[in-house]
Task: structure prediction
Amino acid sequence: MTNLEIPSEHSGATFLEGQLLVAMPRMTDRRFRRSVVYLCAHSREGAMGLIVNQQVDDIDFGALLERLGLPDGDDTGALFDLPEELAGLPIHRGGPV
Result:
């Protein structure tokens, strides 16, 4: 298989889901320069990864949940009531890979 072929379900080839991609030293795309990307999903439809070695500076996990307005799962509609150690977790960059 060359690096341009897309594996088929019957080819025996595997996708890269669950693997780490490490940017080459001369990567010029500033979004991925000096990045380590964990591939959360990879299929014929595309890929989704998280950059695991670059934190977002201006938001933590608690603030992200507040911005998203996610309910806590009960019927009150309240936002998550997170313990401080979870609310302060850093957020890492991610997106389509």
About this structure: The chain has two helices and four strands.
